Amino acid sequence: MFEAKFQTFDETADPSQGAPRLAALMARLAAQGLDGFLLPRADEHQNEYLPPSAERVAWLTGFTGSFGFVAVLADRAALFVDGRYTVQARTQVDPSAFTAVNVGDTPPGEWLKRNLKAGARVGYDPRLHTIEGLERLEKAAEHAGAELVAVAENPVDAIWADRPAPPLTPVVAHDAAFAGETVESKLGRIAEELAKTRADALLVTDAHALAWAFNIRGADVAHTPLPLGFALIPAQGRAAVFLDGRKLSNAVRAELESLAEVAEPAALDAALERLSGKTVRVDASSAAAAFGRRLEAAGAKLQRGPDPIAKLKAVKNAVEIEGARAAQLRDGAALCRFLAWLDAEAPKGALDEIGAAEALESFRRETGLLKDVSFPSISAAGEHAALPHYRVTRASNARLTPGFYLIDSGAQYEDATTDVTRTVVIGSATEEMKDRFTRVLKGHVAISTAVFPKGVSGAQIDAFARRPLWEAGLDFDHGTGHGVGSYLSVHEGPQRISKLGTTPLEPGMILSNEPGYYKEGHYGIRTETLVLVERLTIPGAEREMYGFETLTLAPIDRRAIAPSLLTAEERGWLDAYHARVLAEIGRLVDADTRAWLQAACAPL
């Protein structure tokens, strides 16, 4: 009945190959006179989603998560993952070849200090390490009396016989009707930011920043409409864009050439060398070390600091905000159709995780406007839901059985990017499960109703979501929220709600609100909506105050709630939210879904 067009459920890596591939890598390193190699999961743009040709960590180790770092030494190898992936790493990686290490407990630098031997020469690919990241590793090597050595050829590529070719998908224009601002205006604002810091030029290596600044999109990576390339934007003069010409139609090339010089990516090195004596703004947290070193060798001065495009991109304009609202209505209607269907099908006992994910994607495709999913759906039943970033495969696919089912999914439309999670009850939930679900809900409401003054960052409100869990001795190991792009990355910085979210929140920023709870081996819970930072008018206020407008519209399962744990204010928020869902989504769906909505959105 349903099928997936934008996601697959095949296992893409083979952990059984970890040991022989590690042995082949060690032999290659020995031939190059190296005692080890450091391999981050990254490409030259530090993308979250990588083209298949850059999935070196997955090919080498079997680990398919979005964050990973491999350290290979003569006598041991480690795979570093964060708290989202500790369980996944144990199931995907051969422990006889790679030891999984939680990066929160032991960062790679600390591990290297303990395990590097004096005099060791450890290789690295300077195109894959950021300037800041490499400096931390170099300090660790120096502490151990070892040396890090840049390699001209990545040794993993040398042994990866069937490595896919780099992507070559068409670059397309992102219409101003969706972007809300012309390229000329954006380049002017970027130049103004450069003038403030007295920089002569900005090196753009982040493909998201490139896409935003020049109003272009592509399909070089999965689920994020990115064209991979680079740019140099001067404070004065004409910008330059470095894109593979085979990706450019005559029309797109002509449009770009009316705004900037267009050259091949291979021409970037020569362009950097021509910046001798210039001050070049470089984001050391995302720019590859290779580019920083090329600039320094050319005699340019590196001005290290955040890429100004990131902040400009994060604050959505009026057109993008209206696009987000429109997309949330469209996406909410598709999601509610799915939830109504799920409520009817799941109790029959035949539905599995893949079938549910295929159904939701199909409901979204029926809008006629879906460009892609914004990430592979996390369709997780039972104990699988306890893995925050579980990805269902044909090997892991499980039936939806009584208990909790978690579906975390999103869509790419030309007017917006969406991301939403709902945890629903199949059959019945235990009292413990209801307690945990309600504590997550209380945290969700606390963020939704937060009021805060200008200048407050996500780190300062992250605890709002955790307090109900903390009171029961519980917590979750991921951030409460991430920024979201506009037909770009579903995970956008610099804004976020987390312990590390130090960027002040500003009106126009879109973030997720997604506290959770995970009981390993049993069940998982997450409730996620997208929110928009907005200005508030508070009588008598002495400071500029902000709050959140909730964008996502879909019911929160009332059957999983322990009403006695909610305050009157929390109950009031939930009832008002459900009344809004019914009013705004009810008019967009068929009669059967509307009838289901009326029950799902009834006052608690």
From TrEMBL:
It comes from the Bacteria. CDD domains: APP (cd01085). Pfam families: Creatinase_N, Creatinase_N_2, Peptidase_M24, Peptidase_M24_C. The keyword Protease applies. GO terms for molecular function: aminopeptidase activity. Keywords: Aminopeptidase, Hydrolase, Metal-binding, Protease. Its EC number is 3.4.11.-. Belongs to the peptidase M24B family. This is Aminopeptidase P family protein. It comes from Methylopila henanensis. The lineage of its organism: Bacteria, Pseudomonadati, Pseudomonadota, Alphaproteobacteria, Hyphomicrobiales.
